[in-house]
Amino acid sequence: MLKELEGNIHLLKTKSGLTQLMNKKKLAKITRNVEYENELKELQVELIKLQNWVYENKKRVMIIFEGRDAAGKGGSIKRFTQYLNPRKFRVVALQKPTEVETGQFYFQRYFQHLPNPGEITFFDRSWYNRAIVEPVFDFCTPEQYEKFMKEVPEIEHALIDDGIILIKFWFSITKENQQKRFKERMTNPLKHWKLSPVDQKAQEMWDKVTYYKEEMFSRSHTGYAPWIIVDSNDKKKARLESIRYVLSQIPYEGKEDAKINLHHDPEVVERYHRRTHSEN
């Protein structure tokens, strides 16, 4: 092993090795990666402080991650939770409803996963399945869809009125980048599990998803529970800026001592405005 390492170092010292090592593009990429890792770590330190504040003050925090398939929701949640105390947070990623759940009040299966005092819950998709996925693929009736759209603002108002801190993210991606990420999933054996029959149709249903997405924004974006749009075409920026947004919204103890900027970039994270929101 040691000889192999010495051999590799020797190769790097050659003219060819040094030329490749000093390649401007490669060097720039390495520099960006190091900067990203350093920045992420500093933000994760702040997330630990936030979690401690939530726990000690018995606060309840609920963060919803929505977006098209392959938009980077799961990857962002992973970075949010990477160093948090697992006893004080939960990630909620529900399977399709069972036969029993199908006959229940629609929100019932989600309510059992609401945050307890001192806890943060991260929803990898949420009750907003009924706003987009279900009507797009005919998994619900038009009546069920309309009922949901009328009820959801009232439900969220009641949760916030009860003291829950609610943040709703929509991770936005272009059609071209979605296609690239699907191809990566197909060629990377470590990502095969992410593929689903619904994914295969996502590109075909792009415009239909856009229609229901805009309806969802228009009818469920409120002053008390706004939609926060995250440009996730650059995954790393999306992770950093979504974390920064959450940190900026919660008055946790020790925030003023942060060694990193906690103001999110409005070019990456912005509040939804009542206009047609383009995904490029």
Automatic annotation (TrEMBL):
Gene3D superfamilies: P-loop containing nucleotide triphosphate hydrolases. Its EC number is 2.7.4.-. It is an enzyme of class 2 (transferase). GO terms for molecular function: polyphosphate kinase activity. Belongs to the polyphosphate kinase 2 (PPK2) family. Class I subfamily. Pfam families: PPK2. Homotetramer. GO terms for biological process: phosphorus metabolic process. NCBIfam families: PPK2_P_aer. It comes from Sulfurovum lithotrophicum. Keywords: Coiled coil, Kinase, Transferase. This is ADP/GDP-polyphosphate phosphotransferase. Residues 26-53 form a coiled coil. Uses inorganic polyphosphate (polyP) as a donor to convert GDP to GTP or ADP to ATP. PANTHER family: ADP-POLYPHOSPHATE PHOSPHOTRANSFERASE, POLYPHOSPHATE:AMP PHOSPHOTRANSFERASE-RELATED. Residues 34-256 form the Polyphosphate kinase-2-related domain.
